[in-house]
Amino acid sequence: MASMEVFEDKMTKVFNFFDLDKDGSLTREEIIQASDTVCSLSKATTDEVSRTREQWTTWCDAIFPEGRVSLKSFLDRNKELLSSEPDLVKQAARDTYNSMFDRLDGNKDGFICPEELRLYYKAFGYGKDYSIYKIFQRLDDDKDGLISREEFVTAGQVYWSNEPGFEFLFDPPKTGTR
Ligand SMILES: [Ca+2]
Ligand SMILES: [Ca+2]
């Protein structure tokens, strides 16, 4: 198996981001909680809430069917899935980031603005000590001051691969850092 250091580093950040109670294990409950949090940003309908839950729990059931996982197993299984089913992972990332885009676009104008991105990170505990605008600027590839669906979905697909890029998505920079 080719070296998966880049992917492993990124999945470590994902694990820490979603381990909401920071006890070193990720649970299905935490994934459901995270998906509901994302849905709360755009006043999602009941239908949208359950579809988002389903999408996120399908991923966690594939990675940790036991409902709870340690960092080490989480990394091993994500790496295994990426090497055995790269197209499936790519498609899942595309689908997930597409629907996440709709959840983050609170005012439904078809773009994510700096405030909408800030609300998302704030909901996961990244408040004023974090420079979310730096993330915004890096996601806004064409520099038109808004994040388009394409910019957002591309970031998600690169993130869920062994290519470097977009590491900051699950590791927001602190204010005052680069
Ligand atoms: Ca918007
Ligand atoms: Ca843009």
Written description of the protein model:
The mean pLDDT is 95. The chain has helices at residues 5-18, 28-40, 46-63, 71-84, 86-104, 114-123, 132-139, 149-159, and strands at residues 25-27, 68-70. It has one domain (5-170): Orthogonal Bundle (Recoverin, domain 1), CATH 1.10.238. The protein is 60% helix and 3% strand. By secondary structure, the chain is mainly alpha-helical. Strands 1-2 form a two-stranded antiparallel sheet. The protein is built from 8 helices and 2 strands, in the order H-E-H-H-E-H-H-H-H-H. The N and C termini lie far apart (33 Å). The chain binds calcium ion (CA) (2 copies). Residues 105, 107, 109, 111-113, 116 line the site of one calcium ion.
Which small molecules are bound?
calcium ion
Give the SSE order as H and E letters. HEHHEHHHHH
Q: Radius of gyration in whole Å, from Cα?
A: 16 Å
As a percent range, the share of strand residues is under 5%
Q: Specify the structural class.
A: mainly alpha
The main sheet orders its strands as 1-2
